[in-house]
């Protein structure tokens, strides 16, 4: 797992931070028994996902690797294990 960079991008960090803030907002308003505030917090959670996807589409996420890169990685891993 340490060898992969999964989730270590500005898009991932930003989306998760915004979603975490929304989760905290929803939690506070759930305890306060305020439905409007709870749903506003849930909206912020969804906004985090939208922002993360938008940043990924803008090139700030992890690029998808091609089949050639995947094959080269598998061959290198197999060579190291042999």
Task: Please characterize this protein's 3D structure.
The protein is mainly α and 82 residues long. It has one domain. 77% of the residues lie in helices and 0% in strands. The protein contains 3 helices and no strands. Helix 1 (10-31) packs antiparallel against helix 2. The longest helix is centred in the middle third of the chain and has 26 residues, at 35-60. The chain is elongated, with a radius of gyration of 19 Å. The two termini are 20 Å apart. The relative contact order is 0.16. The model has no long low-confidence stretch (mean pLDDT 87).
Brief description of this entry?
Helix content is 77%, strand content 0%.
Number of strands: 0
- Which class best fits the helix and strand makeup? mainly alpha
General form = elongated
**What is the count of helical runs?**
3
Q: What's the pLDDT, averaged over the residues?
A: 87
* Gyration radius from CA atoms, angstroms: 19 Å
Uncertain spans = none
Topology summary:
Blueprint: H1 10-31, H2 35-60, H3 67-81
Helix pairs in contact: 1-2
What are the main properties of this structure?
single chain; 82 residues; mainly alpha; 3 helices; elongated
């Amino acid at each position: 797992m340490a060898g992969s960079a999964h989730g270590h991008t500005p898009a991932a960090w930003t989306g998760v931070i915004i979603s975490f803030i929304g989760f905290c907002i929803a939690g506070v308003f759930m305890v306060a028994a305020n439905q409007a505030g709870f749903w506003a917090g849930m909206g912020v959670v969804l906004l985090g996902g939208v922002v993360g996807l938008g940043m990924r589409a803008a090139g700030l996420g992890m690029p998808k690797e091609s089949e050639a890169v995947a094959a080269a990685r598998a061959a290198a891993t197999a060579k190291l294990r042999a």
